[in-house]
Each structure stands twice: as structure tokens, then as C-alpha cells.
Write a structure and sequence with these properties.
The structure is a single chain. About 40% of the residues lie in helices and about 10% in strands. By secondary structure, it is mainly alpha-helical. The longest helix has 23 residues, at about 95-115. It is globular.
Length: about 270
Amino acid sequence: MRHPHFALAALVSTLACAASAGAADVLVGVATPAAQRVALDAIDHTAWDALLKRHVNDRGLVDYRAWKASGESASQLDAYLATLSTADLDADSSPDAKLAYWINAYNAVTVKGILREYPTSSIKNHVPWISGYHIWKNLKLRVDGEAYSLDHMEHETLRKLGEPRIHFAIVCASIGCPRLLNEAYVANRLDAQLDTNAHDFFAQSQNFQIDSGNKIVRFSSILKWFGEDFGGSQRARLQRISPWLPTDEAQRLVLTHGVRVRYLDYDWDLNEQK
């Protein structure tokens, strides 16, 4: 779950974990016999690519209404999730194929979860305060004889792959997220795709602002919640981020001695085409 790392959030998360433990899991994908599983390099993301091109615009906004109304698109998403379920996670695969697989899986399962609830105004509507279904914990993809929640995909798999640009690629169906790229991530173009979305992320004023006169930079709260993935110190994080910033002035400012970092409010409204 993409949430701040502070005491109140930790308490809420603890309560949510306890609540979700009593809620029934919602499983997507299919159970695949071991003999029919394939390496991640062999997973075909073409169907997901076609769905994204059909229902997501260049700004990453999703036409959930049309997607849900289309029986064909709904069936194609289910078929793609079934394809993801054919993965053999222990088979030798390239690092880029593994990363592309889990990014696509996270985003496809998220879209499936929103379509299941649509119409809705925010993914946060499906995170319980006390009890009940928790979209980040109870919605799970069947893969390799297990069931993986969105939380597990993000924190136990993707973040452990050591690629911080995942935070500009995986999408929690909110305006404050990076854009949902309207094409599937694929191993042979992954680096360029991740770089494109990183540059796009910081080009948006909701994610990055500068105040040169006061030596202040303001980042999306994503950089606060997951700052450790970009480096062990503020200086290291700013150095890591600087190549993706939109202007020479911004790149110089973040590396200036005494620069102050602030964080912008996060917009949890649904990333829906209006």
C-alpha cells in the first residue's frame, strides 16, 4: 500500500492489516499446473498493451466507464491476468523481463480492482478503517501456486529489485500517482520506458516545484514515502533524482548547498478520464 511512513499511518496500517485478515480474498488470474508454467521472458504482454492503448490516454487517465461497459475489454483483461498466472517464478529469466512482468502485473491487477468497484471516486474508498475488504491486501493474483497481493508485489518483490524508477511506473489509480503509461512495459525497451515516465513525472507541477529565491524544492509525497529507495541520505537522493528533473535550473538547485526539501499534498482522486 502506498502510504506515508509515520506513526499515524503505521497505526492505521496495523488496524487495516487486522481488518483485512478477516476479509475474504478476491483472487484474479487462474491456477496453473506446474507443467504448464513458463519463464517470465516467455510471458506475452501484447493483450495488456492493446487494452492500455484503447482505454488510457497520453496523460495516463483511464476511461474506466468504457472499459467496464465493454464485455470484450473485460474479457481480454481477465485473459491477460490468466496469462500472468502462467509464470514460473523460479525459471531463469532476464532481470528486465522480471521487472516488466511485475510492473505490468501490479498495474493490471490495480485496474481490475478498480473496475470491480467502479463507479468509485478513489481507491482509498476500498481501504477499511475497521473491518472488511482491503484492495491492497485482499486483491490477489494467482501465480506459481501462490497468491500475491498488491502490497506484496510492491514491497516484497518490486522494491527489492533495486530499481527506484518503479515508483514512476506502478500506479495506484490516483491523480497523485505517476501516469499509467498507455503501453505495456517490455524487457527490450524497459530502460527507455522507465526513463520516459521518470521525466514525465517530474515535469508535472503536482509532483515537482521549485522556489529558487528561497532555495526550496517541493516533491510528490512519493519521494517522502519511498525516499530510502533513492539513496541513504537526502544528498544521495537528490543526486539520483536530478537527471530526471525538467530544467537545468531545477537540476542545479537540488544540488545546491542548503537547499530545503518539502513535500506536496497527494491527490487520491481516481485517475479517470472525465
